Amino acid sequence: MKQLEERILRDGRALNADVLLVDSFLNNQVDAPLMAAVGKALAGAAKELGITRVVTIESSGIAPAVMTAMALDVPLVILKKSTSRILKDDVLQTEVFSFTKNAAYQLTLKKRFVLPGDRVLLVDDFLARGEAAQGASKLIKQAGASVAAIGIVIEKAFQPGRAVLMQKGYRVISLARVAKMGEDCIEFAEADA
Ligand code: G4P
């Protein structure tokens, strides 16, 4: 997605060789028109897949995912990273370890919002090692639904997430694929849409 790559080049900053700061349009401040374009691009790439639901992980996945759900005219379901003590019933949970944040969390799906037979487009802001996407996919399958594709706003193509997910049979749709980054350079690999 050209518009997204241009925005990353303009406003993104490599914190180091591994972490890309995109706080001004994705993580802290959200550029809503850009997210609408992201949603349209993901929806367009997934339009033949019979998607019945978009699923994302709080919190930075929500902005691109809500726009994708709107473009596909399907509900958006949000996976939480912890569960409230009063909401123990009707949930599916799995532990996810984040290497970027060096912390584990309980990914939580409220079962009644993903139905058996649903065809899910899983949307997230970043793909690094694919741990979050694998955890989310596991919960979606436990609910009896299938993961038709995984839509990613920014893939760090120098990390193994994409290969891990594809090896497990998932289709990955990344709008920007960062191949390499350093203090004054960000290079892209060919994106999927
Ligand atoms: P993985 O699931 O692909 O293995 O990724 P990982 O656990 O390493 O990433 C965990 C968190 O770090 C996610 O945010 C992800 O969006 C974020 N992240 C990973 N790499 C980068 C990066 O290069 N830049 C930025 N800005 N974020 C990155 P999260 O914990 O879910 O936080 P949030 O969604 O609440 O913001």
Identify the overall geometry. Answer: globular
The CATH topology is: Rossmann fold
Helix content: 25-40%
Side by side, the strands of the main sheet go: 4-3-7-8-9-10
Count of domain modules: 1
Just give the CATH class.
Answer: Alpha Beta
The radius of gyration computed from the alpha-carbon positions, rounded to a whole number of angstroms, is: 16 Å
Please state the average pLDDT score.
96
Class based on secondary structure composition and strand pairing:
alpha/beta
Counted beta strands: 10
Main features:
193 residues; alpha/beta; Rossmann fold; 6-stranded mixed β-sheet; two-stranded antiparallel ribbon; 10 strands; 31% helix; binds guanosine-5',3'-tetraphosphate
Describe the structure.
Helix 3 packs across helix 4. This protein has helices at 2-11, 23-27, 32-45, 62-72, 131-142, 161-167, and strands at residues 13-14, 20-21, 53-57, 76-79, 91-98, 103-110, 119-127, 146-156, 172-182, 185-189. It starts with a helix and ends with a strand. It has 193 residues and is an alpha/beta fold. The chain has a six-stranded mixed beta sheet, sandwiched between helices. The chain has a two-stranded antiparallel sheet with strand order 1-2. A two-stranded antiparallel ribbon has the order 5-6. The chain is globular, with a radius of gyration of 16 Å. It has six helices and ten strands. 31% of the residues lie in helices and 34% in strands. The mean pLDDT is 96. It has one domain (2-189): Rossmann fold. Bound molecules: guanosine-5',3'-tetraphosphate (G4P). Guanosine-5',3'-tetraphosphate is lined by residues 19-22, 27, 57, 59-61, 98-101, 125-132, 156, 161.
